């Protein structure tokens, strides 16, 4: 969720004022705030500078949380999980509650005679 409105209101700024500072019309600000459109990366940086925050703040990312690089089985759709379980059964690997999709993909490519 884009949080432009939240930061703009905290500074008691109108859409016209913010638009003037970043070089766009007020309706562009409104479109971003309502989610009708999204600012591009360059504009996101300008907005962050003017609003006194980071692009991650505007996008609603929490910087103190580490990024997850593993996907748990619960987060995988059932159709994908079923395919992976069948593949794991064929290869004889035990189901550990975690699925290493990169390893499965690598193994499938190697089985097809290609290397990764």
What does this structure look like?
The structure is a single chain. The protein has 116 residues and is an all-alpha fold. It folds into two domains: 4-59, 434 Repressor (Amino-terminal Domain); 73-111, no CATH class. Helix content is 56%, strand content 0%. Helix 2 (15-22) packs across helix 3 (26-34). The longest helix has 14 residues, at 78-91. 9% of the residues are buried. The model has no long low-confidence stretch (mean pLDDT 76).
Short descriptors:
elongated, 2 domains, single chain, 434 Repressor (Amino-terminal Domain), 116 residues, mainly alpha
Low-confidence stretches: none
Mean pLDDT: 76
Q: How many independent structural domains?
A: 2
Gross morphology: elongated
**How much helical structure, as a percent, in the residues?**
55-70%
Described by strand count, sense and barrel closure, the largest sheet is: none
Number of helices: 7
- Portion in strands: under 5%
The overall strand count is 0
What's the name of the CATH homologous superfamily of the largest domain? lambda repressor-like DNA-binding domains
How many angstroms separate the termini? 37 Å
Would you list the SSEs in sequence order as H and E? Answer: HHHHHHH
Multimerization state: single chain
CATH topology of the largest domain: 434 Repressor (Amino-terminal Domain)
| CATH architect. name of the largest domain | Orthogonal Bundle
Radius of gyration: 22 Å
In terms of structural class, how would the helical and strand content be classed? mainly alpha
């Amino acid at each position: 969720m884009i949080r432009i409105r939240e930061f703009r209101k905290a500074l008691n700024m109108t859409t016209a004022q913010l638009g003037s500072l970043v070089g766009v019309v007020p309706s562009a600000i409104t479109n971003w705030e309502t989610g009708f459109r999204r600012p591009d990366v360059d504009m996101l940086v300008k907005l962050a500078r003017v609003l006194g925050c980071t692009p991650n703040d505007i996008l609603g990312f929490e910087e103190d949380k580490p990024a997850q690089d593993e996907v748990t089985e619960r987060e995988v759709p059932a159709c994908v999980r079923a395919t992976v379980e069948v593949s794991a059964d064929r290869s004889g690997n035990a189901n550990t509650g975690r699925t290493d999709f990169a390893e499965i993909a690598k193994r499938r490519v190697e089985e097809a005679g290609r290397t990764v």
